[in-house]
Amino acid sequence: MNSMIMTNNEDGNPRLLPMDSLFNVRDLGGYAADAGHQVKWGLLFRAGDLYQPSDEDRALLEKKGIRTIVDFRGAGEVERAPDCELVTMKKTWPLSIEAGNMMDLSRVGKEVSGETLMEELYRVLPDKARPRYREFFKILSQKENVPLLFHCTAGKDRTGLAAALILSAIGVDRETIYQDYLLSGACLKDKYRAWLKQEPHLEPVMSVRRSYLEAAFTRIETDFGGMERYLGTELGVNCGLLRELYTEAF
User: Fold this and answer.
1) What's residue 6's pLDDT?
2) pTM for the complete prediction?
3) 27, 25, 21, 57: which is closest to 43 by C-alpha?
């Protein structure tokens, strides 16, 4: 076990899966939802890329029974770091969300600050990624697809907004959603440590900040009439069904 990587024992957070080679792999279970419910454990997992896991990492994912993987990465990302295969896996859904020129890192520190670039990206995602997130929620609405893992490269931006949308749909409060989102910062600190030693100005791009997710929520409020309307009208989400599938009384 690489002691530099955050594990359940180091952090005391049961949502974090202890990994040797993979980063930011965690269970969305256990969060309090409304009406005296909580998110069920062992059904929804978020992660960074699944490239070259250790044998122990692979075994743990298989022990969790992962049946479905949803990959938000672009074609180039997938080619550079293809997902591993799991014996439990039944279906992989490639739902590519391409950031395009928005994530041209050569702009950072010259044309734009890292914080501004990321807030700009998050303002664009609710609109740009609508078709992919709509398809994602169709997949989530089918009970046979769980346990399900969704991911991108770092598991913080495209995946982070996806997690925020899921938690919103099933009745988790906004502050808890922010805390789940910000957990990626600690989970990724070692993934980018060497890179940031060479290019420290990229730190805002390689991390998470509350203002990034706030930018997406603000866009949803101002341009789409709020979260409830965005989920129902723009993404076609049946929140009642999702709450039945993914929450339980406690």
Assistant:
1) 40
2) 0.93
3) 27
